[in-house]
Request: fold
Amino acid sequence: MQRRKFLSLGAAAAAVVTVLPSSLTATDFRTTAPKAWEAPTSKEAMEALFGSSVTTEGKIEIKAPKLAENGGAVPIGVKSSVALTTIAIFQDANPRSAVVVFEMGDNGVMDMMTKIKMRKTADVTIVAKGKDGKLYSAVQKVEVSIGGCGG
Amino acid sequence: MKIKAKLNGEETEIKLLLESPMAGKEEAATKKIEESYITHITAKVGSAVVWEASTGPFLSKDPYFMFKFKGAKAGDKIVIETIDNKGKTEKAEEAIK
Reply:
């Protein structure tokens, strides 16, 4: 009961490690940044979503295969040594660049994975906004032997 | 929707498998099917949003996600809600083990 009350008050959760903070509100980036989802290149999508394409490299890590046999499901992982709030995956293999935008809760661990479609060999770019407000990026080229976009 | 929720020390690891063709404009035209893809996913424990994703048709068919967070305990429920491009929603929950 105490925990529920604590959450509803929205008090700073830093003091009690076992309690999840409730400060994060749901954001649908498809609504808030519609242009980002129409952009054909990673750079344009990045600018539409984050307002800049100037990023710092080296703090976040992309885990992707160098060669993907099946372009229909290419595993893409993201890890980071800095705390991130928003993480976006872009690629230049499909008609539009934006694939997914994650928002991390305050207690999020910077380690995640998903699978994307790529219909040809291209760069996959991760762009993330840190809690410090800076933009971080990591790029890896993925070679695709059988395209998986059906388009 | 399939959810696996496992506590490893202080980190909860969620593995999520959704069902959707994730077919965008071009793919729908080629395959002569309707455009159909999930557009947003929310993961909550209690009233706290622990993770969310705005999604598009270039995620794989039947999209898969792994993510982690701290602060939950065994027995807490993770609730996943999704909505697709036609406004269809789905909701499922799983106790953290």
Summary: DSSP finds one helix and seven strands in chain B. Chain B has one domain: 2-95. The interface with chain A takes residues 10-11, 22-27, 29-31, 39-40, 42, 45-61, 63-73 of chain B (CB under 8 Å). The helical segments of chain B are 25-31.
